[in-house]
Amino acid sequence: MIYGITGNTKKDRLWAPVLNLLKWLGESNIPYLLNPSVAKGLSVRHPDANPLIDGKVSDDLENAADIILSFGGDGTFLNTAFEVGTSGTPILGINIGRLGFLADVDVQIVERAIREMEAGRHHIETRMALEVQVNGDRDNLMWALNELVITRSGAASLISIDVSVDGNHLNTYWADGLVIATPTGSTAYSLSAGGPILSPGARSIILTPLAPHALTVRPIVLPDTSIITARVLEDSLPFVYAPDGKSVLVDDVETSFRISKADHTVNLVKLANSDFFETLRSKLMWGYRKSSSD
């Protein structure tokens, strides 16, 4: 297999583990390719690494590699998923950040992870994504692995979002905003706003209001076959919408969103001992009991 290597080039802690990995891959005769930004940053910081870089750079990593190693946190993983797009190339998240549900392999065991994959002790987990259409423009579709967030733009007033599901009116949310999340995104922004945690294989979409004006307005879980229409009225301008954190400011026009399950999935590499519930216990410290010696 050919391993594509990408990562968050803004993190100083990226370079040492990538350099060590390239040395090990070279010694092990395991083929690899580098994202151009990673290759450039590594060359600048470690000129002695140039022999490991020459001839190993690809600006088409998603099609040239069999598996992509994404070094960073969950935000980096989302960016990698966006770059991979509809190609379906599986991604393994290598965590050099903090909390990581998508980047769930510790950087200290990356070599062991590759040995596991070389031996076939891994599986591919498919995750649903959201397709987002703005104002009926099918020529400019967006998609999100985690969520679409619609929120006010720093103003003191609340935002009004009129939401329908499959043509039936659900609610007019008067709140700081609304999160439309996938099961993968259920452990991200939606969770911090009081939304439920869903198993990655759940066939559902979550609507989680952000600080709603009425306490009775709660998150709701919908089937993933739902077609959701969210309309932000002109009196709520300006506002921001963000598919997977890519913020867009709208300050001049009433806007409608059509949100549905995307046609393509995002493929995640999971090692043989990977366990979503273990990840939950570890990352969220479930069952942790502080001892008297702590």
Structure description:
The protein has 294 residues and is an alpha+beta fold. The protein folds into 2 domains: 3-121 and 272-284, 3-Layer(aba) Sandwich (Rossmann fold); 129-263, Probable inorganic polyphosphate/atp-NAD kinase, domain 2 (Tumour Suppressor Smad4, Sandwich). It has helices at 15-27, 36-45, 50-53, 61-64, 74-84, 110-118, 189-192, 276-284, and strands spanning 3-7, 32-34, 67-72, 91-95, 105-106, 122-134, 142-144, 147-152, 159-165, 168-175, 177-181, 204-210, 220-223, 228-232, 239-243, 248-250, 255-271. The longest helix is centred in the N-terminal third of the chain and has 13 residues, at 15-27. It is globular. The termini are far apart.
On the 0 to 100 scale, the average pLDDT is 94
Topology order in helix (H) and strand (E) letters: EHEHHHEHEEHEEEEEEHEEEEEEH
Distinct helical segment count? 8
Report on the biggest sheet. Answer: 6 strands, antiparallel
Number of strands: 17
The CATH architecture of the largest domain can be named as Sandwich
Q: Which SSEs are present, and which pair or pack?
A:
Elements: E1 3-7, H1 15-27, E2 32-34, H2 36-45, H3 50-53, H4 61-64, E3 67-72, H5 74-84, E4 91-95, E5 105-106, H6 110-118, E6 122-134, E7 142-144, E8 147-152, E9 159-165, E10 168-175, E11 177-181, H7 189-192, E12 204-210, E13 220-223, E14 228-232, E15 239-243, E16 248-250, E17 255-271, H8 276-284
Parallel strand pairs: 1-2, 1-3, 3-4, 4-5
Antiparallel strand pairs: 6-7, 6-17, 8-11, 8-15, 9-10, 9-14, 11-12, 12-13, 14-17, 15-16
